[in-house]
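Following up on my earlier thread - several people asked me to post the actual chain instead of describing it. Fair enough. Here it is, all 85 residues.
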Amino acid sequence: MTREELLSLINQASNEGWKELDLSGKGLTELPPEIGKLTQLETLILGTWAKEKKGSLGIKGYEVIGHRLVRLIVGNRLSTFIESL
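Reply from S.P.:
Thanks for posting it. Predicted structure:
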């Protein structure tokens, strides 16, 4: 998914008041700051939780992204989170 396609999808979700947005399998390497426009969003799907796989610290189902311990999600190429998430 290109940046332009992602921004278009974010705008559509914002305008239509989507409660859920599934971005898994889109090949994303980052989330743009515009994702913050989705204040009504209740669920942001970025992949599938790999609860049986060990993350970067060897903890099953979790990895470190930025300075946070988060669920190990597969099906995307994200390596960082923006601080406002």
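The mean pLDDT is 81. That should answer part of your original question.
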